[in-house]
Amino acid sequence: MTTRPTVRIAATGVLLVAVATGVTVALLGAWSSALPDPVATHWGTGGSADGFASVGAMVWAVVITGVLGLALAVWSALTSTPSLARTLLATTVGTVAFIDALLLASIAAQRGLTEATGVAFSGWWFVIAAAAALALAALAALLVPTWRAPWQAAGVRAEAMPLAAGENVVWAVPATSGSAGSVAAILGVALVLIVALVSRMWWLLALAAVLALVMAALLSIRVAVGPGGLTVTGRLGWPRVHIPAEEITAVATEQVSAFRQFGGWGYRVGIAGSLKGARGFVLHSGEGIVVTTRSGRREVVVVNGAGQGAALLEAYRERAAAR
């Protein structure tokens, strides 16, 4: 198969997530009359219940988790390689299954009780949840077919933009994450918030805040080429990478596959192909500027109009080398 089976992958994920969510909601509804109100939802380090919520709140938590799972399942169908699609789909389905199974195991232990305060935590709940997660994750991975994804070509050496003696030109453009990356970032923060609210593990709120700040800094950058070289700055002023023109030995452009070559979005290290070992800002797939420094280090930044930026940077590199 040479064409990505997008519909099949999405349908597989949607079906598995929907089944897990539907079964969990159905069982919670069927058990509701035999459960205490509220039910225990969190246990302290000593194994005693210290967090409680209504069955209705649990149903909403399951539904919201399911909706996020459905979105991630559809998103996994848009990836470029079979291995990545399997990994993302299996992780999504397995996570939803783990959360649902853990919740059901803890709720099942409270059936027939009038008070939930005496329910002790059991390690078997995690065993049951892990088994359910592994089973559904494995099934999801097995149902993703193999297809042959095209490989990106190697880089092309940039030709210097003609500049008059003493002429200085600045090229500055923004680069933002693609829609899939933005959705993944939002869903990731949302999932941490849901887990924090359901489990009452309030330290997770701080984790969600840190994740939100990091993602805000990395989902949008400014790429600038000037007489001083190449500068890439995050939206919040961090991170910032500057490579002086006199330190550059080669400038090229190359088509970059975010997942296949870098394993995702953000400030990444190349894991495959001609850019293996290179570092840089890969907010989406597309054409990027690839810079090699005197130390042999390679930096890459994917940005629209990379050819123009690379040509100008090559002109400044040649000017610096001629001094």
From TrEMBL:
UniProt key word Transmembrane: yes
Listed Pfam families: DUF1648
Keyword Lipid biosynthesis: no
Transmembrane segments: 52-75, 87-109, 124-147, 168-196, 202-225
Domain spans labelled DUF1648: 25-64
Cited InterPro entries: DUF1648
Record key words, sorted: Membrane, Transmembrane, Transmembrane helix
Official protein name in the record: Uncharacterized protein DUF1648
